[in-house]
């Protein structure tokens, strides 16, 4: 094995072979999305703020794990980091399965659940960072956009698949109802990934005579791109954290369907329109994406009916779809080829932090002003992202 692999297949085929591991992790992430905040708020009896914190804790953990993921990918190669992510995902699933039987003791159940969310966030960071860099190495740096785009397709496609499956599993009777069956499937999927990954050939770290870039330096390099990404990610946080609870409070059916539509539209746009990033430029695509996402969140804010909620979820998914790769292609190349892991980890921190903070902040907005105001607030954040992206365009012009 050499330090650099020469692609012998099409870039897409080489990417698809590895991105499967990210798909498995993100199905696990999607499984509790339609039931977690309802479980915390209605079953355990905690406030919407606590429910939002429980959901967002995963992203705080992902945020905290990004620096180590990036450094390890650059130091030991991506495959061992992906293995670590899958193993941590197994631990998260075990804890998820355990929190359901203790629902009669809310504090204990919540504590176990928070532990599961922490482990899942760590797993997401290591698996996603490792898979993207692994695929960039397998497909070639000139195909970075393909690697990032397919990673997103599998990420949000996995969430779209997981949400309705988790909602159905939660309806099972004892002893497998609630979060027990969700947790058991969350154990089985990464175990399958661990069994499979042994047959894959890894890649060595790229040799370099230069000192690896400090994470603080990588963070500064990607700061403008990351701020625009964060502004749009708050809308995703609102959909993921509170859309199911919004449906439940209004006694609507179909929350899992709305989450699935978000994911399906996300994947459709990413699959068919990712090429526009290379044709029109990342900044232009980011501005259009944020505008469409603004329309989706505004629809949720101004029209309180199930059909409008489906349209709003679809538009939000369409807008959010290309935001990460549009700016990410520029961001991950700013630290040089030997430090793509650090740059990717630094850039990804912005989406983690935005979603993590949205659970806390938006939960409080709901308590004081209601769900429609919450969705309106996220639409304003997307407008701010448009202004940041326009400024970024002037800098790079």
Structural overview:
The protein has 397 residues and is mainly alpha-helical. It is 81% helix and 0% strand. The protein has helices at 11-30, 36-43, 48-76, 78-99, 106-139, 144-170, 179-197, 215-221, 223-249, 255-273, 276-280, 282-302, 306-321, 323-332, 340-369, 371-396. The chain is globular. The termini are far apart. Residues 1-7 have low confidence and may be disordered.
Shape: globular
Number of H- or I-type helical stretches = 16
How confident overall, as mean pLDDT? 85
Strand composition percent: under 5%
Number of strands: 0
The helix fraction, in percent, is over 70%
Taking pLDDT < 50 over at least 5 consecutive residues as the criterion, the unreliable ranges are: 1-7
The CA-CA distance between the termini, in Å, is 41 Å
Give the ordered list of helices and strands.
HHHHHHHHHHHHHHHH
The radius of gyration over CA amounts to: 20 Å
Please give the largest β-sheet: none
Provide the structure class: mainly alpha
Quick overview:
The protein is mainly α and 397 residues long. It has helices spanning 11-30, 36-43, 48-76, 78-99, 106-139, 144-170, 179-197, 215-221, 223-249, 255-273, 276-280, 282-302, 306-321, 323-332, 340-369, 371-396.
């Amino acid at each position: 094995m050499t330090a650099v692999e020469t692609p012998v297949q099409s870039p897409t085929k080489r990417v698809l072979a590895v991105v499967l591991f990210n798909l498995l992790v993100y199905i696990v992430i999607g499984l509790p999305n339609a039931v977690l905040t309802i479980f915390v708020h209605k079953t355990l009896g905690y406030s919407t703020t606590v429910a939002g914190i429980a959901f967002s804790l995963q992203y705080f953990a992902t945020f905290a794990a990004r620096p180590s993921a990036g450094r390890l990918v650059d130091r030991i190669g991506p495959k061992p980091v992906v293995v670590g992510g899958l193993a941590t995902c197994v631990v998260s699933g075990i804890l998820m399965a355990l929190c359901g039987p203790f629902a009669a003791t809310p504090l204990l159940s919540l504590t176990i659940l928070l532990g599961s969310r922490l482990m899942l966030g760590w797993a997401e960071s290591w698996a996603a960072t490792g898979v993207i860099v692994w695929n960039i190495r397998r497909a070639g740096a000139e195909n970075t956009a393909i690697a990032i785009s397919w990673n997103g397709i599998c990420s949000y496609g996995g969430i779209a698949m997981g949400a309705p499956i988790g909602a159905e599993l939660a309806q099972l009777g004892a002893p497998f109802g609630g979060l027990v069956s969700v947790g058991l499937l969350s154990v089985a999927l990464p175990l399958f990934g661990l069994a499979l990954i042994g047959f894959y050939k890894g890649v060595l770290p790229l040799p370099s005579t230069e000192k690896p870039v400090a994470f603080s330096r990588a963070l500064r390099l990607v700061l403008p791109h990351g701020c625009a990404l964060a502004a749009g990610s708050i809308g995703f946080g609102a959909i993921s954290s509170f859309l199911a609870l919004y449906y439940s409070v209004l006694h609507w059916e179909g929350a899992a369907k709305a989450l699935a539509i978000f994911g399906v539209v996300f994947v459709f746009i990413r699959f068919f329109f990712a090429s526009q990033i290379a044709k029109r430029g990342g900044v232009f695509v980011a501005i259009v994406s944020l505008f469409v996402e603004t329309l989706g969140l505004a629809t949720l804010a101004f029209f309180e009916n199930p059909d409008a909620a489906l349209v709003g979820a679809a538009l939000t998914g369409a807008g959010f779809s290309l935001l990460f790769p549009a700016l990410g292609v520029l961001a991950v190349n700013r630290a040089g080829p030997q430090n793509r892991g650090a740059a990717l980890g630094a850039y990804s921190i912005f989406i983690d932090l935005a979603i993590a903070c949205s659970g806390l902040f938006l939960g409080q907005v709901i308590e004081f002003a209601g769900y429609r105001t919450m969705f309106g607030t996220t639409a304003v954040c997307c407008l701010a992202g448009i202004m940041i992206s326009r400024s970024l365009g002037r800098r790079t012009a």
